[in-house]
Amino acid sequence: MPLRALSRPFVPFRTRSSVLGAARVALLARLPAALLVALLATLPAAAAWELDPAQSRVAATVIQMSPEGPIPRQHEVRRLSGAAEADGTLVLPLRLAQSDVVERLGPLPPWLSGLTERPLATVTTRFPPQRLARLAVGESLVEVLTLSVQSGNSTRSEPLAVRFTRESPARVRVTNAERVALDGRELMADPTLRSVMLLLGYEQIGDEVPVTLDAVLIRR
User: Fold this and answer.
1) Residue 163: what pLDDT?
2) What is the DSSP string of 41-91?
3) pLDDT for res 158
4) Whole-angstrom Cα distance, residue 123 to residue 120?
5) How far is it, in rounded angstroms, from Cα 144 to Cα 111?
6) Which residue from 77, 210, 219, 23 is spatially nearest to 137, judged by alpha carbons?
7) Which partner for 124 in 22, 148, 159, 220 could form a disulfide, CB atoms 3.0-4.6 Å apart?
8) Phi, psi dihedrals of residue 196, rounded to the nearest 5°
9) Coil/strand/helix, residue 134
10) Measuring CA to CA, which residue among 177, 166, 213, 182 is closest to residue 55?
């Protein structure tokens, strides 16, 4: 045998099984990344939630103080609307036109009719979209949200315990998890709200105005 042949480096013979084994190793090395991509593709988008105006409202019970005694009266702010940002931030403007006040008053005086579409207050909050995405149908979770309420030149923050209940893959109902009541004296101290209250016949109201939230988040 020629000496040149003996001087060649030894190359092991690769059988069919060894080739398949190397392919399996390469596939397994790529498998975690492929699974991660597939998993991320199946997760719902964090910003895919918005309020359904047809099913979102806030109801308030105003206690009218009359010579005959306290009289509870129900009012609603309907057609709540707003879309969540990627981090769950939700901005919710509240307009007089969304309330049943306009229906009860009928034609408004000129000085007030221009206010119906102007936000009387703007509520900003932030909910956890990732936790909502992990909720199974029929499950609920309670989160304490911070509500930032801007009205006129003033802004105040209030905590609110909210219950999220998943009713279907694309539908989550939102209700307050605890009793909530507004300060009636603060409401009457606001010039615009006081004007509306007087038009409704409320010269004096109770110290508390209980409020209930019933809204629906839907996936876009």
Assistant:
1) 95
2) HHSPPTT-EEE-GGG-EEEEEEEEEETTEEEEEEEEE-----B--TT-EEE
3) 84
4) 10
5) 39
6) 219
7) 148
8) -65, -45
9) helix
10) 213
- Residues found in the chain: 220
Helix (H, G, I), strand (E, B), or coil: what is residue 216? strand
Which amino acid is present at 202? Y
Longest CA–CA separation in the chain, Å: 124
Quote the pLDDT of residue 142: 95
Q: What mean pLDDT do residues 28-55 have? A: 53
Is residue 220 within 8 Å of residue 48, measured between CB atoms? yes
Range of weakest confidence among 73-87, 111-125, 129-143 = 111-125
Q: DSSP assignment, residue 117?
A: T
- What does the mean pLDDT of the chain come to? 76
Grouping H, G, I as helix, E, B as strand and the rest as coil, residue 20 is helix
DSSP string, 22-46: HHHHHHHHHHHHHHHHHHHHHSPPT
| pLDDT tens per residue, range 55-78 | 999 888 989 888 888 889 888 889
Tell me: pLDDT of 21 over 70: no
